[in-house]
C-alpha cells in the first residue's frame, strides 16, 4: 500500500536551528546566533512565560474556556465579533481553515512568487490547484493591484502577503480594495499580516469592518499570528479574522482544540503585554535601519522584522556566515539564489551579523579577484 501521489507537493524548508548547526559544526550552541527564522530576539512575552507555567497543571483538560477567552480578547483587540475570529494552530492552521471553507476540488488559489510555500501546500492538501503572480526583484518586489489582476483568472482565493516575506514590501489598502472590487463575487482576498506589527500602516481589517474611509466588504479576510511580535512561535498560535458571512463556518472546519491550552493561556497574557511588543518593534526598526546603512551590499527596504540582501551567491554567503557562527536564511528556496534574508536581532546580534556578512563579502570578492588573476596568467 502506498500514499496518494504527492509528487506535485513541495516540502516546506524551515530555517535551520542552532542545535542542529552546532552539532554539524562540532561547536557549542552558545557560540552561534540564529537570524534565519524571523523569530523574536527578546524571546516570548514575559507575561506569557508566567501564564504557561501556571497553566501547566491544567493541560489534562481541553482548552474550551481558554479558547473562548482568547477569542473574545482578540475580537476586542480588533473591535470585531467573537465569531469572526478563527483561532488556529499557528497561521498555517488558519490557512488550512480558509482553504477547507472555500475550496472545491480543482479550484485554484492565486499566490505571490516569491512567497510563503505553505499557501500552495495547503491548497494541494485540500485538492485545490495553485496559480502565481510575480513580484519582481527588478521592481523592488512592488505590490500593486495591477500585478495581481493581470494574473487573476477566477481564482477562489487570492493571497496577499503584506508585509511580504522575504522582501518586506507592502501593499496599500486602496490597492487591496481594488483587487477585491475587481475580482469575482466568489473570490476571497486574504491578506496575510503575520508581520503587521512591524509595518507603518493600518491593517486590512479596515476593509472588513468599513473603517477609515473604506466601505465594509464581505470578500476580504486577514491572517495574524502570535509568533513574531509576541514571541510565541514555539506554542503555535495564529488566527484569521473573517467577514460576518463566513463566521459560522468555523465550527465545521475547525480541528477540535487545535489551539492548545498552553497556547491560549500564553496568548491571553501576551495580547496585553504592550511593553514587550513595543520593545520588540523598537528593536526591529533600529535593526532594519542599521543593516540598510551598514551592510556592504544592496538591502531592500522592509516593513517586516527582517531584511533581504543581494549578495550574488546566497548559498556561498550563507555557508560562510554559518561557519563563522551566524545562521541566516539562504533564499534560494524562495527562487532568489542571489539573496539572503537576515532577521532583525538584538543590538549585539545585529552588529555581529553585519560585521560577519561584510567580512564574508570582502573575502569572497578577494577570492574572485584572485581567481581572475590566476586565469589571466
From TrEMBL:
Single annotated GO MF: pyridoxal phosphate binding
Positions bearing N6-(pyridoxal phosphate)lysine: 228
Keyword annotations from UniProtKB, A to Z: Amino-acid biosynthesis, Aminotransferase, Histidine biosynthesis, Pyridoxal phosphate, Transferase
Pathway(s) annotated for this protein in UniProt: Amino-acid biosynthesis; L-histidine biosynthesis; L-histidine from 5-phospho-alpha-D-ribose 1-diphosphate: step 7/9
Domain Aminotransferase class I/classII large per the UniProt entry, residue ranges: 31-357
Example GO BP: L-histidine biosynthetic process
Cofactor annotation: pyridoxal 5'-phosphate
Listed EC numbers: 2.6.1.9
Organism superkingdom: Archaea
Reaction catalyzed: L-histidinol phosphate + 2-oxoglutarate = 3-(imidazol-4-yl)-2-oxopropyl phosphate + L-glutamate
Similarity comment text for this entry: Belongs to the class-II pyridoxal-phosphate-dependent aminotransferase family. Histidinol-phosphate aminotransferase subfamily.
Name the record gives this protein: Histidinol-phosphate aminotransferase
